[in-house]
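Onboarding guide, step 5: your first structure request.
Type a short instruction followed by the sequence, for example:

Predict the 3D structure of this protein.
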Amino acid sequence: MEDLDVEMINCGSAVQFYLFTDRAREWVAENVNTNPWQWRGNCTFVVEYGYGSNLATKMVKEGLNLGLGV
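The system replies with structure tokens like these:
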């Protein structure tokens, strides 16, 4: 199994994305518009639940290795 670039955690009304690699952080910086309040440190950000699956799909289509956490 390949190492994960990103892990997505469903938190109910929000989804957290944990960025494990530079590749994932660079992809997010180039492709996702976020506000400072969405970030927890520099490797985790939160989006509303409705945006989570679309964002995860785009990440996978771009070749990021995404895992689903519990």
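Each response can be followed by summary notes, for example: The radius of gyration is 11 Å.
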